[in-house]
Amino acid sequence: MSEPNVSAIKSGARARMSTRFLTTLAMLTAIAYVVMVLSKMLPQVSGFLQLDLKDTVICIGGFLFGPLSAAVISIAVAVLEMLTYSDTGIIGCIMNMLATCAFTCTASFVYTKFHTKKGAVISLAAGVAVLTAVMLLWNYLITPLYMTDFSRAQIAALLPTLFLPFNLVKGGLNMALILLIYKPVVTALRKAHLAPASHVPAQGTGRLSAGYLLFGAALLATCVTFALVLMGIL
Predict the structure, then answer these.
(1) pTM for the whole structure
(2) Does domain 14-230 have CATH number 3.30.413.10?
């Protein structure tokens, strides 16, 4: 009896894994795009800042497959948005890429180093901090280029009063949503064989899980309240 072709078996397994990986990335990109479109229905802040929840989907992809995958999805969705919904052209697309990559790639990278529930909170908090810092810089540099009614001095004056709270709230909303939906979403993807199995030992439930969910819910409620204030609804 002939021996099985081990190389062919390994090659077939790699091909299946690659197909599943590309399928999942394409699906997450499509979902992120839909969430972006739905986010456009939310009231804008000060008439030009849009709260966007697509980072939730993209960051889940980054947690599963790493920061490079998060960057690929971020760029793909930003380009699709520029070609379909955005009216700010290439400058708006660049700003979109910078904001999403700052949050999702930072969080994904840190999560690869601390692959626990506590690590998830730390990584997402780091993502919010980097998002806020990066966008304060780039709002100052780039916003006057496409909002010609505002001088650079006027934009600088808005940094602590508008851009800082806006980016903190935007990042906080995405952080809270990820904390609340990551586990059920990833469990569903794994059952569908669209996500890799976890190699991390199962953590206990009880106080840790309850506290984790309560923290996410409290953060979400806080950020929603602040978002409503920024929108002028409250």
Answers:
(1) 0.87
(2) no
Cα–Cα distance measured from residue 212 to residue 117, given in angstroms and rounded to the nearest whole number? 8
- pLDDT bracket for residue 234 (50, 70, 90): confident
Q: Minimal CA–CA distance to 90: which of 74, 98, 77, 79?
A: 79
Between helix 54-65 and helix 89-113 the angle, nearest 10°, is: 40
Rounded to whole angstroms, the Cα distance separating 76 from 232 reads: 32
Instruction: Return the structure tokens found at 42.
Output: 């939310």
CA 12 vs CA 3, 7, 118: distances in Å: 17, 9, 37
Give CA separation, 90 vs 23, 82, 154, in Å: 28, 7, 23
Kindly report, residue by residue over 156-191, the tens digit of the pLDDT. Answer: 999 999 999 999 999 999 999 999 999 899 989 888
pLDDT tier at 200 (50, 70, 90 boundaries)?
low
